[in-house]
Amino acid sequence: MNLMIVIPCYNEEEVLRETTKQLSVVIDRMIDCNKVNECSILYVDDGSKDTTWSLIEELGQTNKYVHGLKLAHNVGHQNALWAGLEWASDKCDAAVSIDADLQHDINTIELMVEKFKNGYEVVLGIRNDRQTDSWFKKNTALFFYNLMQKMGVDVVRNHADFRLLSQRVLKSLMSYPERNLFLRGIVRLMGFKTTEVYFDCNERFAGESKYSLSKMLNFAIDGITSFSVQPLRWITIIGIVSIFIAFCEVVYAIVAYCKGVTIPGWTSLLVSLWFIGGMLFLCIGVIGEYIGKIYKEVKRRPRYLIEKSI
Ligand code: UDP
Ligand code: MG
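That is the input. Now the predicted structure with magnesium ion docked in place:
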């Protein structure tokens, strides 16, 4: 079989040399044991601002496994990964997507290949624990998974974008036209024969996380709004509840008037004014979120542009 390892990289000059070295060892071993016939590493440079691309070029000359794809500008992890998978979809029997920073245990790739040979078309890499994550990352991730599940989105806990996809799955994936990418959601949606492998997550080999807080937040919002219309329904429910409360207030006001205990109340007036105003803004915001999505989808802009390839 022909395997392609797809790795999106954004400012990863500090780790690529080591990643290539370690991956080469794994690939050599797989080839020696006849687990794979051919294997390549595809680095997708997601518009890095450092020397990542020249490093990929250099590695491409010295290492027979290394190939590279340079995107014209930074399009984010999901889109960069898509670019790599699309590139791989007609060049291999299966592709493994993995992060550049060696957090995903690369020895798990062998296990994934075994599962693939046993007939599985989707093999999800699932981390055993989150010990290497900061308190903040651990808890925000937990909150995110819970929220997604409440909204009816099928997500696998502790599975990021470390997975093997067969060529058939890759080709099917490419027929999904959406621009708001949440790959792990789409993969779940597609079905196919799926299994899981478990791995221990390492510390990032070097450098800082390339997922800033704002990128993480955007990713979470994209994940929810591109897979669930539940927030829109909540607005309707909020509206119904508000009307009910208003009705109760009317009854209360009439009773109070009859009893003669009405006092001109600034506070209640002001509070409700702000409350309703706030609710309205919130609701408009959520609706706007979806309209924004529609706006992006109808433009049909390309997900990425390739500048060079080696
Ligand atoms: N990445 C990317 N484009 C971006 C941000 C990140 O291609 O805009 C890549 C990054 O180089 C890495 C992977 O996505 O290979 C995961 O990023 P990172 O390890 O920084 O995220 P974390 O593990 O902290 O969630
Ligand atoms: Mg990482």
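The chain has two domains: 2-210+302-309, 230-299.
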